[in-house]
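Work Package 3 committed the consortium to producing structural models of liganded targets before the mid-term review. Because experimental data for this complex are still outstanding, the team generated a predictive model from sequence and the ligand definition alone, so that downstream docking and mutagenesis planning could proceed in parallel. The input record is reproduced below exactly as it was submitted to the modelling pipeline, together with the SMILES string for 2-acetamido-2-deoxy-beta-D-glucopyranose.
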Amino acid sequence: MLRRLIGQTDFCLILTLLPLLQGSKVLDPGEDTVYKEAKNNGLEILDPGEVVYRETRTNGVVEKGVILECGSVLPDVYIWGFTKPGTATIRAVAYNFGKGPKLQKLAKTLGELSIIQRSASISIAKLPLAAQGLYTCQALYDTAQGAKLYYYYIHLRVLVPVTRPYIVLSDSSPSEGRSMWMRCGLENGTGPVNYIWEHTTLYNTTRIMAQGNNSLVNVTLVSRNHTGWYRCLARNEVNQAQSERTWLDIIFGPDVPSIDVTPYSVTERGYSALERETVSLLCQASSNPPSQYIWFYNNSQVYMGPTFTITRILRMHTGHYACLAQNSYLNTRSKKTITLTVYYPPDGSPSCTVRPTNNYTDLTLWCSWEGGYPHASLHWSPVLPGANGQGYANATLTQRGPGTANNSVFECHGSHVALNESTSCSTRTWHPAGEPQCYAYATRNNEYLMFSCSWEGGFPRALLWWASSTGAIHGKSEENSNILILRSSATYSGKSFVCHAQHPLFSERKQCVLKLEAPVLVTQRSMVSVYEGSDVQLTCILKANYPATEITWYNNLKQHVVETPSKYVLQRAAAWSNLTVRETDGLRDSGQYWCSATNAVGGAEIPIHLLVKRYPMPPNVTINKIVYSTHQQTEVDIDWLIRTGGDITGFIIERRRVPTTEGKRDADPPWQKVAVNLDPSIRTYKMGGFDPAGLYAVRIMAVNHRTVGHPSEAKSPAMPPFNAYPAVIGAAIGGMIIAALITVLLFMYIVRNRNNNPRLHDMIFGIRNSQSRENINYPEDESVGGAEGDVSREEHGREEHGSPGPAMTSPRATVSPPDLPPRDDNEPVAVTITVMATS
Ligand SMILES: *[C@@H]1O[C@H](CO)[C@@H](O)[C@H](O)[C@H]1NC(C)=O
Ligand SMILES: *[C@@H]1O[C@H](CO)[C@@H](O)[C@H](O)[C@H]1NC(C)=O
Ligand SMILES: *[C@@H]1O[C@H](CO)[C@@H](O)[C@H](O)[C@H]1NC(C)=O
Ligand SMILES: *[C@@H]1O[C@H](CO)[C@@H](O)[C@H](O)[C@H]1NC(C)=O
Ligand SMILES: *[C@@H]1O[C@H](CO)[C@@H](O)[C@H](O)[C@H]1NC(C)=O
Ligand SMILES: *[C@@H]1O[C@H](CO)[C@@H](O)[C@H](O)[C@H]1NC(C)=O
Ligand SMILES: *[C@@H]1O[C@H](CO)[C@@H](O)[C@H](O)[C@H]1NC(C)=O
Ligand SMILES: *[C@@H]1O[C@H](CO)[C@@H](O)[C@H](O)[C@H]1NC(C)=O
Ligand SMILES: *[C@@H]1O[C@H](CO)[C@@H](O)[C@H](O)[C@H]1NC(C)=O
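The resulting structure, written out as tokens with the ligand in place, is given here.
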């Protein structure tokens, strides 16, 4: 290098100094060796003729000033050279050989370069970048020891300050999850440059996000947390500068929405609300740009917007509510579904009752309040210690029966979340009244036996069941009453049936016992005798029988006595029955009678023998004489005889017309009674009512009570012997008497038939003439009916009761003989008129 330096022709001074330089033995042909040695040792070679090398480094800042010193003492001669970086050529910038400093052209390219007065130092103002390089100052000092040559090497670096950086984003609004980069742009600035990234979040917290000499920051996974202001700082040896704030907007969402339900009430099944409340559903989903919200109920859209409000929510609004959040920029959506259950109370109020349990030994209190959501909560009070009378919708409590007092009241309280007040119901338990009652009876014809047992009242009801005395249960258990039906059988006779009754309030069972017994009949007299005509009473006594039955009677013909009520009269009481046989007849009523009783478990009958004794036959009667009283042949006198002795209580006279025409011979007209119950002492009798034109036969019978004797031989009345006197009298006054009689009889007729012919009656007697009518009326009326053998009303009645036939006239019925004044010959007129009246 030195050689090249010396080789330069235009640098005279160097040529001058060359011998100095060449004389140096230290100088090596390789320039690097020279520098190195100088640098490494740094030693000042005091040996004259030896060159001293000094090397320093200094920095300058572009556009600023710098001073490059060449020793501390002004040298006698100096030369400033400049070597451009990357070249080996050294060029002179300035020199001073004693005649003042001289700047070379090169100096102009190195900024405002000047030599500082009274020194060899260079001052450069407004450093250009081109001023960077190696400055060499060769200084020669003329000292007493000789000339000394110094080489000062100065390395000048021209530094550039950092300019204001700017931020470059690969994407100013990236989506979450993507990657991006940020670069801190810098125009000028000498490296190394240090970069610092500052991030200010939405919450005004600032942190250093990255630091280093790389201007680029990679974000591999962008998140919303990267949203915010960014600033980058660049720093080098000279200065530091920061960028403007840049906003990074991260697009994201929507996140899964969150739903707030007001009022807030959460159960394991989701949200709940009370009926008729106002419920707000607020949906929030983080998103940039902000979400749009759509509400769905059971998958159908109901509302748009974040807050869905239901005023007066109803039970039918129960269901699934979904909020759909949409990010319209990203065209992304997310959804959240909640279940909302509307609580509503059950209708009405709880209902409660008491039921028997554990075979009717204990009580179960039962309370129910169905419906509603959720179920209403129920509890019983009072509750014995340790018992749990609680439940939902249903609450049951089992309570010991016998320890419970009569008329105990229990209350069941119900409450529901949707009701302000609790409601309740109550129930009461009480005994059935008295004791169980039972009885047995049989169906018609004793086909079936029925056992009835009842124990009514009480709550809950009592349980009843039937068992035999051996304990075997018959039929089913029933509440309140129990009827057991069994087919009748004699095997039950003497057996007992027990009705058991159980009620929870009683610790012990009650029972009612029935003993079945077949009937047993007794009678006081099994042989009864009686004279015919009177009533007789047969008695039967029913000793034991269950079910109770009645005595029935059969007569001597084995007929049921009730079929002839006129003949038989029954009197009965619980234990006995009297059969009265009325007006016993010696021929027909004797015989074996039966009283009988049958119930469902057996029967009995006993015979009672009735003997109706007849009165002895009265003696035969013979007609002694029978003649017409008069020639008019309307009255007949009869007298008779009894040839043998015997008991007689009366006589009966009968007559009949003897037919005159031959053709009607076969059909004899019946006998007519003319008189009955004639006094047994009389032997003669006058009969009226004969038709003078007719021919009569008359007979007579003796009667002993009911026994009628043989009829006498029938005889016809004979004509009376002639008597002139009555005929003469009759002829003389006959007309007068007849007239009078006709008048009397006519009046009688009118009186008797006043009802049939009132006009005639009134015409003759006048309407108000009751006195006279009565006077005439009664005695005549009755006697005429009796005398003529008309069947009066009274007689009719008797005949119905009595048996037909002449012998059956009632002994009580005493028909008096006609009580008429003796009649004259004019009687036939009366007969004629009577016939007219009765026809
Ligand atoms: C950066 O340096 C260049 C070259 O030296 C210069 O032209 C430019 O003006 C400088 N820029 C700034 C901002 O200083
Ligand atoms: C953040 O700071 C700015 C300016 O100081 C202020 O306007 C803004 O309200 C702040 N934000 C928060 C969330 O504190
Ligand atoms: C950033 O990522 C790019 C490519 O994606 C890569 O070339 C570069 O080296 C990364 N820079 C840093 C600092 O990781
Ligand atoms: C965002 O920041 C929050 C709070 O600092 C943190 O809990 C969350 O995990 C961050 N999210 C991501 C995606 O980094
Ligand atoms: C909505 O869905 C719920 C649950 O499946 C159901 O109980 C309810 O009846 C539905 N409501 C309507 C109006 O369909
Ligand atoms: C209930 O009572 C009946 C009759 O006494 C008896 O047969 C039955 O075994 C009882 N049942 C229980 C569970 O005690
Ligand atoms: C129990 O109460 C009922 C109803 O009040 C009443 O009729 C009955 O006599 C009472 N029984 C007893 C044993 O007190
Ligand atoms: C039934 O007969 C008995 C015995 O003969 C008698 O004691 C009783 O008084 C009679 N009863 C009636 C109502 O006549
Ligand atoms: C009574 O009369 C009947 C019939 O006329 C006769 O059979 C009977 O022998 C008579 N009795 C006497 C004692 O004569």
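Reviewers should note the following from the model. Confidence is low (pLDDT under 50) at residues 1-46, 766-839. These observations will guide the Year 2 experiments.
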